[in-house]
């Protein structure tokens, strides 16, 4: 049904729902595991490599890097590292300029840290996505690597890339992969009927039980062991690999943008750790204030987790220390702040399990495939107002302006602006999902696609603002046209001020009537999905 969308927005192309179901029924991940298990033993270790991806950009507590290092140490061989810079991959995913810069800065820091350990980090280049695998294979073979390690990525393209990688290295190189992104391995939490769990509440309950009973899941691993001094000579050229530059289309729009974003989001493991420590000093306020965007009391760790600059085990082992050394993060075992923060981490864990076990969710299709049958509106005016933060709904506009300025948006706003786009404007939710990818510093396919999963819940931006931003401080900060509006008029100035008062503000009137469009959305969803058979 989405032909019109596919034509207008090629980046939103997706397979048919029938094809999606076939893919779900024959998990690419299972094929990857089979291919890994089918490898022949390779006893002789020549050189060991770790292949970094965009989600494990740290040398501390990096599972695959650690295991690679252990093998190299045992065999008294050298460890080398590589990373493939592929601008076409960033263009495909729509990665934001802020995120590209964050990653590149992080890679530069890692290269220095690794050099101190006599371990080279080599930047390879692939113009096209299909060149990534041959580029790495060529590099490994040319450098006499016998064993290569990398961490799993759970998105379908990345799983397919790794299957292709295994095929291309053949028997020449032994590949080992590790689960690094989560505390509990994705895919392993199943229902009584043996199916992967998809519903949050039972998943959360079971996850808390597993971690309480097995605190070792939070153990962290040390950085790799230093190579002996000889690789500096033998592999001299590998140490001179220049850090890639951002492609032209991923540069910041201005020097001012770059300065602001780098100040807000200093890259690297040390900066992430510092942020986590400072968050812990105020975690006791988290439960009470996390939904109030003006309080800014959430951790802002998402960018560090998405790029893997801080591991989730590192963060949770800090929380565990704070929790008197206990990994009991249940409501009765932890303070309200710790309980609620860990609960958010569990959403992140579930979403990785969903990406792995429902691969169509990383192919521009909703988890509930019926939503692909909804006929969306072409409201270009509404779209432009939405992304610029000029819809005339103060809470929505504040959220979008925060996003455009900080490359970040508070979770409460993400919920509201997404609902407003696909319910009140009836614009295909995938356009918003893509806009988030193109703008956020913390873009993460699993969290973003699950966050954008359409539903019948239509958020009311006025009551949401009244409840979560009761003094209107967040709105005043981001929508300066309204900074002098007093009382409850701040939440709905067009409806609550006189015509003259409103006109003086220089603020747009609402693009749509919320009540009418709520009704329109519910009717549209019902009628378009009634007979849908994905
Ligand atoms: C429409 C929509 C799109 C989103 N897109 C992204 C995205 O691209 N990247 C991203 O990391 N998060 C995304 N989220 C989830 C959430 O909004 C952010 O993780 C959170 O706002 C980050 O701020 P924080 O680090 O201060 O969070 P905290 O409140 O401090 O939470 C701690 C960590 O838990 C995880 N987390 C928190 N809330 C959620 C959630 N709802 N779902 C999954 N994990 C969560 C994050 O890793 C976060 O850093 C999205 C949510 C929605 C509704």
UniProtKB/TrEMBL annotation:
<dbReference type="GO" id="GO:0003677">
    <property type="term" value="F:DNA binding"/>
</dbReference>
<keyword id="KW-0285">Flavoprotein</keyword>
<feature type="compositionally biased region" description="Basic and acidic residues">
    <location>
        <begin position="246"/>
        <end position="257"/>
    </location>
</feature>
<dbReference type="GO" id="GO:0043153">
    <property type="term" value="P:entrainment of circadian clock by photoperiod"/>
</dbReference>
<dbReference type="InterPro" id="IPR005101">
    <property type="entry name" value="Cryptochr/Photolyase_FAD-bd"/>
</dbReference>
<comment type="similarity">
    <text>Belongs to the DNA photolyase class-1 family.</text>
</comment>
<dbReference type="GO" id="GO:0005634">
    <property type="term" value="C:nucleus"/>
</dbReference>
<feature type="binding site">
    <location>
        <begin position="298"/>
        <end position="302"/>
    </location>
    <ligand>
        <name>FAD</name>
    </ligand>
</feature>
<protein>
    <submittedName>
        <fullName>FAD binding domain of DNA photolyase-domain-containing protein</fullName>
    </submittedName>
</protein>
<dbReference type="InterPro" id="IPR002081">
    <property type="entry name" value="Cryptochrome/DNA_photolyase_1"/>
</dbReference>
<keyword id="KW-0274">FAD</keyword>
<dbReference type="GO" id="GO:0071949">
    <property type="term" value="F:FAD binding"/>
</dbReference>
<feature type="binding site">
    <location>
        <position position="286"/>
    </location>
    <ligand>
        <name>FAD</name>
    </ligand>
</feature>
<dbReference type="InterPro" id="IPR036134">
    <property type="entry name" value="Crypto/Photolyase_FAD-like_sf"/>
</dbReference>
<feature type="domain" description="Photolyase/cryptochrome alpha/beta">
    <location>
        <begin position="47"/>
        <end position="183"/>
    </location>
</feature>
<feature type="binding site">
    <location>
        <begin position="344"/>
        <end position="351"/>
    </location>
    <ligand>
        <name>FAD</name>
    </ligand>
</feature>
<keyword id="KW-0456">Lyase</keyword>
<dbReference type="InterPro" id="IPR014729">
    <property type="entry name" value="Rossmann-like_a/b/a_fold"/>
</dbReference>
<dbReference type="InterPro" id="IPR006050">
    <property type="entry name" value="DNA_photolyase_N"/>
</dbReference>
<dbReference type="Pfam" id="PF00875">
    <property type="entry name" value="DNA_photolyase"/>
</dbReference>
<dbReference type="GO" id="GO:0003904">
    <property type="term" value="F:deoxyribodipyrimidine photo-lyase activity"/>
</dbReference>
<dbReference type="GO" id="GO:0032922">
    <property type="term" value="P:circadian regulation of gene expression"/>
</dbReference>
<dbReference type="InterPro" id="IPR036155">
    <property type="entry name" value="Crypto/Photolyase_N_sf"/>
</dbReference>
<dbReference type="Pfam" id="PF03441">
    <property type="entry name" value="FAD_binding_7"/>
</dbReference>
<dbReference type="GO" id="GO:0005737">
    <property type="term" value="C:cytoplasm"/>
</dbReference>
<feature type="binding site">
    <location>
        <position position="341"/>
    </location>
    <ligand>
        <name>FAD</name>
    </ligand>
</feature>
<feature type="binding site">
    <location>
        <begin position="442"/>
        <end position="444"/>
    </location>
    <ligand>
        <name>FAD</name>
    </ligand>
</feature>
<feature type="region of interest" description="Disordered">
    <location>
        <begin position="218"/>
        <end position="257"/>
    </location>
</feature>
């Amino acid at each position: 049904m989405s032909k019109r969308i596919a034509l207008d927005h090629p980046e939103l192309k997706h397979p048919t729902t029938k094809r999606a179901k076939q893919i779900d029924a024959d998990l690419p991940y299972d094929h990857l595991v089979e291919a890994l298990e089918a490898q022949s033993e390779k006893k002789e270790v020549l050189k060991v490599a770790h292949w970094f991806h965009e989600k494990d950009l740290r040398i501390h507590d990096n599972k695959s890097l650690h295991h690679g290092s252990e093998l190299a140490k045992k065999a008294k061989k050298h460890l080398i590292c590589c990373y493939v810079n592929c601008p076409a991959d960033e263009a495909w995913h729509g990665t934001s300029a802020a995120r590209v810069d964050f990653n590149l800065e992080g890679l530069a820091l890692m290269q220095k840290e690794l050099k101190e350990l006599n371990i080279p980090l080599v930047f390879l280049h692939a113009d096209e996505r299909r060149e990534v695998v041959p580029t790495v294979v060529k590099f490994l073979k040319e450098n006499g690597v016998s064993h290569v390690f990398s961490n799993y990525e759970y998105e379908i393209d990345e799983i397919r890339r790794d299957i292709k990688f295994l095929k291309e290295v053949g028997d020449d190189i032994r590949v080992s992969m590790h689960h690094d992104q989560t505390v509990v391995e994705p895919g392993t939490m199943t229902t009584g009927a043996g199916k992967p769990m998809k519903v949050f509440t039972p998943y959360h309950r079971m996850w808390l039980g597993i971690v309480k009973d097995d605190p070792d899941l939070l153990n962290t691993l040390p950085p790799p062991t230093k190579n002996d001094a000889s690789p500096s000579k033998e592999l001299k050229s590998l140490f001179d690999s220049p850090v890639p530059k951002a492609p032209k289309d991923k540069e910041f729009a201005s020097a001012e943008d770059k300065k602001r974003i780098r100040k807000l989001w200093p890259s690297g493991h040390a900066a992430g750790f510092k942020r986590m420590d400072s968050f812990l000093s105020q975690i006791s306020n988290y439960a009470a204030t996390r939904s109030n965007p003006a309080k800014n009391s959430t951790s802002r760790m998402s960018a560090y987790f998405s790029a893997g600059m801080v591991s989730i085990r590192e963060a949770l082992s800090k929380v565990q220390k704070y929790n008197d050394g206990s990994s009991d993060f249940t409501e009765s075992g932890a303070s309200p702040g710790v309980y609620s923060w860990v609960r958010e981490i569990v959403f992140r864990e579930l979403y990785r399990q969903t990406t792995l076990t429902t691969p169509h969710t990383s192919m521009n299709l909703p988890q509930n495939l019926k939503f692909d049958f909804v006929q969306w509106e072409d409201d270009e005016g509404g779209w432009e107002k939405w992304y610029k933060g000029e819809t005339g709904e103060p809470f929505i506009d504040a959220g979008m302006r925060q996003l455009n300025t900080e490359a970040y948006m508070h979770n409460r706003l993400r919920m509201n602006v997404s609902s407003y786009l696909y319910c009140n404007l009836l614009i295909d939710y995938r356009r918003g999902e893509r806009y988030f990818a193109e703008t956020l510093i913390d873009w993460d396919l699993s969290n973003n696609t699950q966050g954008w999963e359409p539903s019948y819940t239509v958020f009311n931006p006025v009551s949401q603002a009244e409840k979560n931003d009761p003094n209107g401080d967040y709105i005043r900060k981001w929508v300066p046209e309204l900074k002098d509006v007093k009382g409850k008029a701040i939440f709905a100035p067009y409806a609550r001020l006189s015509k003259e008062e409103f006109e003086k503000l220089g603020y747009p009137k609402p693009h749509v009537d919320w009540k009418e469009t709520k009704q329109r959305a519910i009717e549209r969803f019902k009628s378009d999905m009634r007979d849908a058979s994905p």
